[in-house]
Design a protein that fits this description.
Helices cover 11% and strands 41% of the residues. It is mostly beta strands. It has one domain: Immunoglobulin-like (Sandwich), CATH 2.60.40. The longest helix has 12 residues. The N and C termini lie far apart (57 Å).
Length: 151
Amino acid sequence: MHMNGRRVPLWPAVVACLVLLFGCGRRDIGASARGIVKIDGKPAPAGIRIDFQPQGPTGSPSMGITNAAGRYELWFTAADRGVMPGECRVMLQPSREYGPDGNPKISAALQSLRLPEEYAGEQSPLIRTVKPGRNWIEITIDTTSPPKSSN
């Protein structure tokens, strides 16, 4: 392109368009999911790790961690928010942080939590269906009765 007899490079305009089109930093991939984890009718404490494992032959898992209100958002990676649409097995377990001495640090709320182990592994009875687009997914655990599968 020529402007007043000088050649003006196009690459800055191309880069600006790409940034506007694709964004920079975090992005949504697949579907998005937010929700709340409730244990025995109350919001879960901060620090519960939620893993969504797609049940189809392909698909990447997503994870989130509850905040102090029991709410979470699912991410593929630290930069890619989202979850694969379809049926997903949901696994719950206390997240682990490590102190400077290398020993695990677990909050008092997580230490006192009695989350049944069957929710932590690949045999978790929790199955949720993720739809394309935005999803609100409530996960309710009743530690006083046996686990059951639900959508």
